[in-house]
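Lab channel / #folding
Pinned by the channel admin:
"Please post every new chain as: sequence first, then the structure tokens as a reply. Keep commentary short and put observations after the output so the thread stays searchable."

First post following the new format, from NK:
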Amino acid sequence: MAIADLENALKFPEGWKRSEALRTFGQTEFGLEALPLLEKALDDESILVVSEAIEVIGKLGSKALIGESADMNTPRGLVARLFSLGNHVWSYSGYQNCYGACLRALVKLGYKSRPLVSLFAAILSWGTPTTLLNP
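Reply from TO:
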């Protein structure tokens, strides 16, 4: 799927269709040129779309953090966005439904810092299965 096709698919009114388009896109070859569109998908109202966008961003690996702040103890940009989404409580469930996806993405992006360890500890303290952490 081309980026232009994904951009069109993200305009569908149904969240499941937008999510499926992201899943399909994530199975293709893509590079950093997709990052702006993927970051835009993080603003979607559907948890399905946001979770899938997080997973696809993780597939970019460490190159997605090029240009990010060198101060890894004070997250900014994409890293800060993933921390924020990981902590976001979704109104439909009352839970932080993106925690696992955000943690997996941060690990795949190669982000290593004290906040990541804190996020990991918080997940484990809540009794979330560690299988969420398997990339």
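NK: The radius of gyration is 14 Å.
TO: also worth noting, The chain has one domain: 3-133.
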